[in-house]
Write a structure and sequence with these properties.
CATH class: Alpha Beta
Largest sheet: 5 strands, mixed, barrel
Helix content: 25-40%
CATH topology: Rossmann fold
Low-confidence stretches: none
Order of helices and strands: HEEEEHEEHEHEHEH
Number of domains: 1
Number of strands: 9
CATH superfamily: Nucleoside phosphorylase domain
Strand order of the largest sheet: 5-8-7-6-9
Structural class: alpha/beta
């Protein structure tokens, strides 16, 4: 069933001109500007793509954009899907499978996250080197998963080491502070309590968010190399926890975004 749906989604996008993209990019909350740099863009709104979920979060726009970025054919997801919107893991990761079937060979992911590691400050970037899945499920837990890849997908190194090393070198060269750490993904949409922030620190998380991990699991299942960067939008200090201000989080992401765009574009040049 999923194979047939994927074929229909891909056929629709190919009919629109989505031709063998090399790079797939998922843009997180407040991080849509990279899409503006695509040359000769072709857009496909999610509600027009067969079997695609719809973005329901007001600051996620909901379209795939195909074109050229730093001389490479790229397809960009402007707006992603989350468990907290009522989607399941198959919905959330369906676009990754579509981009893979279109032809991408590398996947770039961004997200907005809160700092558990209090050495990180608002506006910092964190290169994700590992993750913890606290979303209570897996996008590989379905009957026909073995048709798409190894059921027991290896997750010993979920984030591509050569791309991570290249990104660190680029950050040093461009004088951009790029932390490295562990991202923990929770369900949301509520923010964490003080006790929950303390727990996340104890289990080894440096930053917390509500996305990314399902996409990364599926990309690993498809043997698709991934690099992922979190924009730190707030500091989650349980000893001095302030009420959350979503508008401020979005604004912080937007201010830090040019640094992330620079890193991604410079890495794409080297591929």
């Amino acid at each position: 069933m999923m194979r047939k749906q994927l074929d229909e989604s891909v056929a629709y996008l190919q009919s629109k001109g989505f031709d063998q993209p090399e790079i797939g990019i998922v843009l997180g909350t407040g991080l849509g500007k990279l899409a503006d740099q695509i040359e000769n863009p072709i857009e496909a709104h999610y509600n027009h793509i067969p079997f695609f979920p719809l973005a329901t979060v007001e600051f996620h726009s909901g379209k795939l954009i195909y074109g050229t970025l730093e001389g490479k054919k790229a397809v960009v997801m402007k707006g992603r899907f989350h468990l907290y919107e009522g989607y399941d893991f198959l919905d959330i990761t369906y676009p990754i499978r579509v981009m893979h079937q279109l032809g991408i060979t590398k996947l770039f992911i961004s997200n907005a996250a809160g700092a558990i590691n209090l050495n990180y400050k608002e506006g910092d970037l964190m290169l994700i080197e590992d993750h913890i899945n606290l979303q209570g499920g897996s996008p590989l837990a379905f009957k026909s998963v073995a048709q798409f890849g190894e059921r027991f997908a290896d997750m010993s190194e979920p984030y591509d080491v050569p791309m991570r090393e290249s990104l660190m070198k680029i950050a040093n060269k461009e004088n951009i502070t790029l932390r490295q750490g562990v991202y923990v993904s929770v369900v949301g949409p509520q923010l964490e309590t003080k006790a929950e922030y303390r727990m996340l620190k104890i289990i080894g998380a440096d930053a917390v968010g509500m996305s990314t991990v399902p996409e990364v699991i599926v990309a690993n299942h498809l043997n698709l190399p991934i690099v992922a960067v979190s924009v730190i939008t707030d500091e989650c200090n349980p000893e001095n926890l302030k009420p959350v201000d979503i508008d401020r989080i979005i604004k912080t992401a937007e201010v830090a975004e040019p640094k992330m765009v620079k890193l991604f574009k410079e890495l794409i040049k080297t591929l």
